[in-house]
Model the fold of this input.
Amino acid sequence: MKKFLLSAMLLISSTSIFAQETTQLVLHMKDKTETVISLSELDSITFRTPADDGKLSLTCTIDELTPSHATYTIHANQSNDAYYQFLMSESTYNAMIEQYGNLQNHDQAWWTELSKYYENATWEDVMHMQMVYGTKTFQSEEIIRSLEPQTNYVIYYYGIDDNGNMTTEIGTKKFTTPKPGESANTFTISDIEVSYGSVSFNVTPTNNDRYFASAQNAKMVNDRLAAGKTMREIAQEVINVQATYNPDFEDMIYTGEQRIECGCSLEDTDYIIMVCGYDGGVTTDVTTANFHTLK
Done:
């Protein structure tokens, strides 16, 4: 478009120079037809956006992106027409299409599942709760508590009416979360005290960067090490699970020197304390300490 605009501007400004040789402007259309305009009849060229046809049009932009978070805006040209939007990993998105055949089947199944949590609600009732109007900015935490670093995600969106019918084409926006940065923080674990069902310990960091602390079954850790995983990869797996399923995940993120208590439900079992820097993902090497739970 820019190339054509520049060419047209040069054409108009230079008509007097080459009018003797060029007498027609030929527009080559997408349908393979041509539109011919005589330069002798041309006064000026104006480029403008076509008038709004009254139909809903949606686009999506990514406003902020970190290893664990995305802020995005869905722009709607109409404020009275509803649309639906959702976010999931690209692998889940592809598996969903394979399982359900299309997005509408998946979304109706999802609304049906959610309706079980409301008394006397139908999938249509839940759908209406999910409908959005006008341009709006969303936080990824509204759908996924914490995104995973270096992972592909898909935002999809489409216009929808009161009966659940699509009123626009499906739009998608793909993005990849970045790799966490590195932190120079290191940790000392001391004064481990084991009680029934829990362990407490001191963590002394060397700076005020954020860090994650947890106690994990030693067999699980050792099995993953034997399978070729690194401690950083194992710590990231633990973080991913906690961020997804633990509503108190943020309580496992610390700064500064702390006395920390973690649950350990298995009796007479080897456990490993894991401490590492965290900024949407693991940012340091993992510091560990071993202990054994009470009988």
Observations:
- DSSP finds seven helices and 16 strands in the chain.
- Confidence is low (pLDDT under 50) at residues 1-19.
